Amino acid sequence: MIDLTQPQRQSPIAIVLLGAGAIRSLGIAQVALAVFFIARGAADGRLMAVVVLAVALLVAVSVLSWWRYTFQLVDRELVVTRGVLRVDRLTVATDRIQSIAIEQELLHRLTDVVKVVVTTAGTAQAEFTIDAVSLPVAEELRRRATALGAAASGETAGGSIEPTERVVFQHTPRRLTIAALTMSPWAGLALIPPLWFGLQQALEPVADDLSEATPDVDVDRLGWWLVLIIVIAAPLFVVILNLGRVYLADWQQALRTDSTTLRRTSGLLSRFSTTSSVARVQVMTSRQNWLQRRAGIRDVYLSNAGDGDLRLIACRDEEFAATAVAAGLGVTDQLPLDRRVHPAEIWLRTRNTAIVALAVGAAATLLVGWWAMLVLVVVPVVWWSTRRHVRHHRWSLAAELATSSRVISSSTEQALVRKANLVRVTQTIFERRRGLAQVEVATAAGTIEVGMIPLDEAQAVRDVILHGVETDRRAWM
Amino acid sequence: MADPFSNEPLSVDELPRLRDAAFVSVDPRYMWGRLAGLVFFAAIAVAVGVLVVRRSEAVAVPVLIAGGVVLLIIATAVLSVLEARRVAYQVREHDLSLRRGVIRHVIETIPYSRVQHVNVGRGLIERWLGLATLEISSAGPDISVPGLAVADADRIKQVIAQRAGIDDESEGPNAVAMSDPASMPWPPPPSSPA
């Protein structure tokens, strides 16, 4: 039985990590420089004495830091005491904890310990880190602190502070492979120009030799083959990179939940576990490119205030729905999403694009000739994409504000009305002339915008949301 | 255990509306503050322009640039005046709204229950004009209401802090005592000490 009400010390492995941290804080460049000079003057006895002293000091400080670093749960507060010369006593109310992440980097895995990162809403960075503890201690700390926090903020109706955790879903290696293969390949296109110029430079002497040695061979034709190889190789390279990245970062990606918290775990070499309370989820976003749509998967993001966002890749529809329910939101497919935006947006975007394209084209014509006017091709493309966007854009407002849109990729956003921190109604000159407006609902972790809707409707959305914020007293963060 | 929260359908017409007529314009001195800042910038621009013209051999280009800068300053001044005249706020029982923007009209509303921090700031020009800016922070975006008389800013700050449940006794020297309910923009809530 782990008694967290008593001061707990980190694993002795933390001494190594603290020492490494101290070296990092000195600066890698400075340390490398010192090592260089020491290596050059190794024969100097005095220098060696200084080195030995410095290393001894580092070890002593690391051991003392480890010894002085304790953590414990006192009532409903997590208390951390640390410091060698100056002792800091950090007290964090458990209901203010934003997320508790349990991470296991390579060194941690080798030594069978984990790192605990505690984040609160008030800080963008981690409030504090426990460098190395055993997994049972970390799990117990996470479980107790989260449950106490939930009880303090009234999230557990029955007062139970030890909810049972269940797995919402866990991805198989096959799913991760699909996830990597359906990631956008556009990044690979960016590799084409440098690959082209690099290979051109490298192969130019070879091509010259070849054309001299075998005049019958058409070198230009070989060049086109080179283009084809590069165009295929660049996206392939990106696919391989994506596979590696997904396997390393998202291996066995799983979402777990009890009545009050969500926990995401994943990782191959390093294991990462991020926990967030359900109440702190502000916005749920899903994105699906055309490859993912064909594969029937989508990426889901649960945004929290501060750190601790949960990113869930390659979720099937039923997993997306289960995630929404676990996060206290409605199932997106069951939301009405029956309202549309005004088609004036098509004219606005097309007109603005045409003006900019004409100006750029006219200016570029002076430099490169009439070819520059080809830039006007972008105008029908924008017209088509905006028309498609307007046709597929839907939104609705009930207990939550939800939007969905699709051009080539599709996305959805939804947030509970009570999560709103600020509501903004804006009107550009274009919108004023047509009696239209845009409404923006800002939460503690992102903004949902609905543009090109009638002004009356935008004002009604604002009033409904403000009413919802004031009347719904359930926890919002 | 049943969820105690109910959410029955409600007609939008029954909800309290944010009325345009209830917006209160900020202090007229705010406009002079905006112009004073612009004059300061214009003075620097003119000084740099004169130096460039005096050192330049070709006159036409610097004069054209100077003309452009003058036009830009005049346009900015006109916009600043219009903007300052449009800035207005509305303090209601449960939220504060700010109206701003000339080219793009913006009305933003922050409920008191989402306010994390409220502060009164006074820059150099504001101190000179006896004005203050009310800065309201939430966990999301923030709102700044500029061009308030110092007493008004402090009073609104105190009311917001009280209603947001973040008030404390450590108020600044300009704090207005809450003992006079008539000084508040609306009747105090039933739970607060009158």
Briefly summarize what is shown.
The complex is a heterodimer of chains A (477) and B (194). Chain A contains 15 helices and 20 strands.
Structural write-up:
The complex is a heterodimer of chains A (477) and B (194). Chain A is an alpha+beta fold and 477 residues long. Chain A has 15 helices and 20 strands. In chain A, strands 7-6-5-11-10-9-8 form a 7-stranded antiparallel beta sheet, with helices on both faces. Chain A has a 6-stranded antiparallel beta sheet with strand order 14-13-12-17-16-15. A 4-stranded antiparallel beta sheet of chain A has the order 1-2-3-4. The longest helix of chain A is centred in the middle third of the chain and has 32 residues, at 219-250. The radius of gyration of chain A is 29 Å and the shape is globular. The two termini of chain A are 32 Å apart. Mean pLDDT of chain A is 86; it is low at 157-161. With 194 residues, chain B is an alpha+beta fold. In chain B, 39% of the residues lie in helices and 21% in strands. In chain B, α1 runs antiparallel to α2. The longest helix of chain B is centred in the first third of the chain and has 27 residues, at 29-55. The model of chain B is unreliable at 169-194 (pLDDT under 50). Classes of the chains: A alpha+beta (477), B alpha+beta (194). Chain A binds chain B through residues 121, 157-158, 305, 399, 420-429, 432, 442-445, 447, 459-460, 462-464, 466-467, 469-470, 472-474, 476-477, and chain B through 1, 3, 5, 7, 10, 12, 15-18, 94-95, 101, 103-111, 113-114, 138-141, 143.
